[in-house]
């Protein structure tokens, strides 16, 4: 892939357009993840924050605020807040999932221990609240606190739905709305709120973030059965971890008795053998579950773009629309 | 112990004086720990919230607000906030300590799993912020967010100081100020802030909570070597878990070569044998470490009472002073 092509990805164009603000966000993050007394905190945080995430969520906040003509300083704080919340949830997720790798690097719980991941995650949560308190906007505080509650609620729901073949598409949607879309939608919404926008604009920004996040997570779950090395996903992780995602829900709904027994053995009872992943992928294909999942991801991407309609036309708006296309480009 | 005697304990007199407000706090806690979609959340929370804690921290907030003549509704929200933060830290502590029991009952991480404890703790943290946002007071939000950050910072510091014989009394003080006193002082301080008190009063309330919390934790750490069944503490837990607390720091500072080797073997290397706890207690006695620790706890209790001086005289003020005495009564 040529450098020119790479530079044309929407999230990279966004990063270019917002480069000055992103530099300020990164400086603020580094400043606030310091702890005079407990050096373990910046060690663990740096491992994750510096690991080359795309800063997608903070960019959404910066873009939303700029799109709304905000000219104050606080979108920087809010973007850093959003990244802190995201980093805290990653630290706690890796404890919960007992993960050994994230973004191709060993996880913090493996390098240090679960204790450090739990406590440093708590420190970042608290730090995120301190950052947003500085903005002095109570509506912003309400939105981001509610998003944090929705994230943990979604994760708990995922925990209790795991390995349960009766999980419905409705519950799946609630889980991914919590664990992924809630922070996307809060990130865009607070950009509009801090800029003092009217309700229609704020709602449009929230709906964009919500739909983008849902599309993003459905694609992620689809690639777990449909990915290639190029997508950077390990095909079969969710199957081995017995997670019930949209493709499996659709295939289970269409299963005959023999197929149902297969899903019960592999997902519910966790008795997996060589060749089971291939059988699973075969069943997803047979019932059109991968295609149907792909269609839903594209429909949510479309909804994200439609939500942008009420916003004033601008270069940033085009980039946000392109971002919605890019999310599903991995499965086109 | 007769019922009359029991009813005369200061925290019980406080509970009597604040009974109407405590009922409202308990109702609010039950309302907010509900989750429509993830029933695991109220299950785990109820296990801890209903387990008969003394509600000491919320009572501090209620007492401080009432003492300052506050007549609005929000001290109830703040008291519930403080209890939510406390409950969230207990859930995460039990994961970090790999505890099996708390208050004589199996811990949540044992009854459910570590995952549920981490995620439900996160939900309660987020819920605590939602509750305080409702109060609409930015200074209160700043104080409680900062307290949450200080709590996790103290816990991380404790983690890195654990099993390290070079831990100083200064680091010990910083750890307990974080893990225990920060929430006590924030609990009393926000009671004054919500009542719109001047800086001298707010500072007095904060200093009272800080000194009370420090005294409380030193007593707790002392009882781990000095307790009896009547105090409800298991003597020797900290020693077996190789935690460095004030009595040990003092004994290590006075140790000769042979004693130092004993502490290195038992605490640093964790090679403990039958009779080691008794040897440890003997060394603490020999160097006057228990007596010196006791004196420090009493001095902090004294400081807590002195901090109250600037506050207007009232029945509640007497109860808060008595509470400071009661904290050290367990070691008198």
TrEMBL record, chains A, B:
<keyword id="KW-0460">Magnesium</keyword>
<keyword id="KW-0808">Transferase</keyword>
<dbReference type="InterPro" id="IPR008949">
    <property type="entry name" value="Isoprenoid_synthase_dom_sf"/>
</dbReference>
<keyword id="KW-0479">Metal-binding</keyword>
<comment type="similarity">
    <text>Belongs to the FPP/GGPP synthase family.</text>
</comment>
<dbReference type="GO" id="GO:0008299">
    <property type="term" value="P:isoprenoid biosynthetic process"/>
</dbReference>
<comment type="function">
    <text>Supplies octaprenyl diphosphate, the precursor for the side chain of the isoprenoid quinones ubiquinone and menaquinone.</text>
</comment>
<dbReference type="InterPro" id="IPR000092">
    <property type="entry name" value="Polyprenyl_synt"/>
</dbReference>
<protein>
    <recommendedName>
        <fullName>Octaprenyl diphosphate synthase</fullName>
        <ecNumber>2.5.1.90</ecNumber>
    </recommendedName>
</protein>
<dbReference type="Pfam" id="PF00348">
    <property type="entry name" value="polyprenyl_synt"/>
</dbReference>
<dbReference type="GO" id="GO:0106350">
    <property type="term" value="F:all-trans-octaprenyl-diphosphate synthase activity"/>
</dbReference>
<dbReference type="InterPro" id="IPR033749">
    <property type="entry name" value="Polyprenyl_synt_CS"/>
</dbReference>
<dbReference type="GO" id="GO:0046872">
    <property type="term" value="F:metal ion binding"/>
</dbReference>
């Amino acid at each position: 892939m040529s450098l020119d092509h790479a530079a044309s990805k929407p999230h990279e164009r966004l990063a270019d357009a917002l480069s000055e603000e992103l530099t300020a966000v990164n400086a603020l993050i580094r400043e606030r993840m310091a702890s005079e007394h407990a050096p373990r905190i910046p060690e663990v945080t740096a491992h994750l924050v510096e690991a080359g995430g795309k800063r997608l969520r903070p960019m959404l906040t910066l873009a939303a605020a700029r799109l709304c003509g905000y000219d104050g300083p606080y979108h920087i704080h809010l973007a850093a807040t959003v990244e802190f919340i995201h980093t805290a949830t990653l630290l706690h997720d890796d404890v919960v999932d007992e993960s050994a790798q994230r973004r191709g690097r060993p996880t913090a719980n493996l390098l240090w221990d679960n204790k450090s991941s739990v406590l440093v995650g708590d420190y970042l949560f608290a730090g995120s609240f301190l950052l947003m308190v500085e903005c002095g906007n109570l509506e912003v505080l309400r939105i981001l606190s509610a998003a944090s509650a929705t994230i943990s609620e979604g994760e708990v729901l995922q925990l209790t739905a795991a390995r349960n073949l009766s999980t419905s598409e409705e519950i799946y949607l609630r889980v991914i709305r919590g664990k992924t879309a809630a922070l996307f939608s809060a990130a865009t919404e607070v950009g509009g709120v801090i800029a003092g926008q009217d309700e229609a604009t704020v709602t449009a920004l929230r709906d964009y973030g919500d739909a983008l996040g849902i599309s993003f997570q459905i694609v992620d779950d689809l690639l777990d059965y449909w990915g290639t090395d190029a997508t950077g996903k390990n095909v079969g992780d969710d199957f081995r971890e017995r997670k019930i995602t949209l493709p499996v829900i659709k295939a289970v709904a269409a299963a005959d008795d023999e197929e149902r027994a297969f899903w019960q053995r592999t997902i519910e009872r966790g008795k997996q053998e060589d060749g089971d992943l291939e059988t699973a992928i075969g069943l997803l294909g047979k019932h059109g579950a991968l295609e149907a999942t792909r269609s839903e991801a594209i429909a949510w991407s479309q909804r994200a773009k439609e939500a942008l309609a009420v916003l004033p036309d601008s270069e940033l708006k085009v980039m946000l629309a392109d971002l919605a296309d890019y999310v599903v480009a991995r499965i086109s």
